[in-house]
Structures are given as structure tokens and as C-alpha cells.
Amino acid sequence: MKKNKLIFLVFLTFLAQNLWAQNIVLDKIIAKVDNHYILKSDLETQYQQYVTSGQNNTPSRCQILENLVINKLMLAKSEIDSVIVEDKRIDAELNARMEQMEQQFGSAKNIVEAYGKSIPSLKEELRLSLKEQLTARKMQDKITNDVKITPSEVKRFFESIPKDSLPYLPSEVEVGHIVRLAQPTRPQKDELINKLLDYKKRVLKGEDFAELAKLHSEDLGSGKRGGDLGFAKRGQMVAPFEAAALKLKPNEISDVIESEFGFHLIQLLEIRGQEYHARHILLRPDYQKLDASIATHFLDSIRVLIQRDSIKFEKAAKLYSEDKATQDAGGMLSDPQTRSIKMPLDGSMESGLYFTLDSMKVGTISAPMPYRTEDGRSAVRIIFYKTKHAPHFANLQDDFQKMAAVALNRKRNFAIEKWFMKAKGDVFIYITDEYKDCKVLKSGEQ
Asked: HSE of 173 in the Cβ direction (CA atoms, 13 Å)?
């Protein structure tokens, strides 16, 4: 429901920086960490985001600057320690963000008009920001990978909180859903299949597969590389794709293959032990025009079976839901921060889900309703309103998982601060006199 929060924040930061650039002509460097610079606009953008978000305890500019310096230090150290984020991961996240951006603006044309830049230019700018964020996150994970929290530590942390400072938690709910994807119509499928078959004929007559992929593939990550997916281990790709690829001989081209991502024309390049190297041309149907009637009828039937107690909701979700993120958990949604299935019933919840629950009774299942997946696909879902917990002051018995998440995050922050104090001597760090009172390079509270 709120997956990839980090990447979404990158997306918001990118948009905010573009808006800042439209209004601020002059900018200046306020800090330097090896070859990485921090601009005053970077600092002000993040500060304004906190202010306008309405969050309590907005950090000071000095605290934000310290975080920016730590992030740049992580980037500098990642170069020294050879911590690398693969291009495939960056491309996958970038494509997801661009699809989300297109949904928000309505079309690619609207995006271009809003920012006065071409889609390739916007993507390249966002890609650089995204790469930095993912690299810093990978470095952070390396630093905190061994940080664990024990039940006794959670108990000590909770008991250290003054009784009059215990957080008052809002109403919480346990909610599940079963999702079925809308399907391409037969004419849509035929159109895509015929296009790919035409590309296959053209390659067999001598045209370059890579050039056709660059021109026509809708896998934006591999498309610019001529459809090249690099070496993949067996089991890494989705089953229909891998099964088709491994049936081919080197340089042979497959028939059209359908997977959850669309329709593929695959060319096997090489097999090396348990790895294979392939490229493809991907075409996807227009997700705005898919047929949801089959999914709707299917979920309506499942809903009736659950209501008659012919099958439990959790079992139905495991058997029939096409949301892989929740399928194994019996369809139950979870808070992205705490991983708890108890989710706050407040403004942090997905708005569509929040208003749906407002009209439902606990223990009931909604009728099938339209749903948009995280990757922008049209779908239908039914919602199970399992339980509702009354608002209360935090206690260890009911809120252990939340307290554990807070205690673990606190311990990780200490680990990062300890790493920072040690690692800052390995790189060149300069901060302008304007921010000398921030004491960024000193430990302790500011």
C-alpha cells in the first residue's frame, strides 16, 4: 500500500527541487564531502517539505544539514568501499516512479508542459537523484546490518519513557484484500502479438534486434540497451519468460510470450552454467483500457463463498489474490514502517482505503471495487475489515511490535552516528562559515 517509501520521497524531492529552481535564480554550495556538493537549495527544499507536511517536531536546518552531510559521506565512502547499486534496480525503480508521475499528471504530454522538459531529460535528472539515494541506503544497510534488538532491550526502552510522555495511538485496524488484475481484451492482445511477430520477421530478414528494442520496447530500462537484460540466474525471471528463453538456442528468437509484465519477444544470447543472457522487446497493453469484468465476476463469487463460510478469507487470498506483496500473508495489509498488520486509521492511510472502511462494518467484506496497483495496473479488489482497535496510550502488551520498531530505529541511528564520527576522517569535508554554528562535525545534540 505504501511500498518503496524511500523512492517516493526521492520523487517528491525531485519535484520540489524543480519547483525551487523555477523560483530561485541564484544558488550556492554550502558544503562539500569529497566530490559531492550540498547546495543551499537542497537544504531549503527539505526544510520546506517538513514545514508544509504539518509534521510535529520539524527538524532545524542544522539537523537537516547534518543528515545531508551524512548522506554525502555515505556516497563518498561507498565509492571507497565499492558499494554499488546495479543499474537494473535503478531502472526498475525509475520506471515505476515515471509511471506514477504519468498517472498523477494524466499523460506524458502534461508532464512535459508542466516542467518544460522532455521525458528523457526529466528521467535522467531523476535517475541521478535516485542512484544517490539508493546508494546511500545500501551503505546505510551495510552499516546497520548487524544491529538487532532483543525483547529485553525493547522492555528497557519502553520503561525509559516517562509515563506522561507515552504516545497516544489512534484507532488501528486490521484489513486484508484480494486483488485480481484486469485483463487485456482479445483485440488488444492480438494487436500486440501481431506487432511483435512483425518485429520477429524483420529481424529474421536482417534487421538488428537491438535497434528494434531501442525504438519499440516498453521496458524502459533494458530498451535503451537494445533490450539487453544481462546475465540472469535460473529462477530470477518470471516463469513464462525463463521457460521460453531456456528452450532457445543462442541467437534464436522465441514466439510471443505473455507474462504478468506484458508480451515479450525474446532472443537468447548465451548460456553460462546456471546463468543465461537474453534480451527482449516488451509491449504492454494500455492499462487504462483493460477489461475488468472477468476480475469483477471472479471476486464477486469469492466474496459469496467467504460470506457463506465455504472458505476462509486468508485461504482465498493465498489461493486467488494476484497481489504478491500480501498473498502469502493471507491478504493482510501491513504498516510499511512497523510491518505490523495493525494500521493507524488516520490520514496516513491510503485515502481510497480510508474512505471505504468509513462506510463498512467490522467483519464485513466489500463488493468488488476498482483498484490501481503500485505499478499502475488496473485491477479490482475486495476488502475484508477484520478488526478495529480503540485508541489508547501505548503499552508493551498491545504495542510491542511498534515499540520494537522505534527502539531498533534508535539503535540504528546510534550505529550510524558512531560510524559517522569514525568515517569523517577518511574524506574531505568542508562547510561554509554561514553554517559553522551547526557543529555538524561534532557528536551529540545540536
From this structure: 21
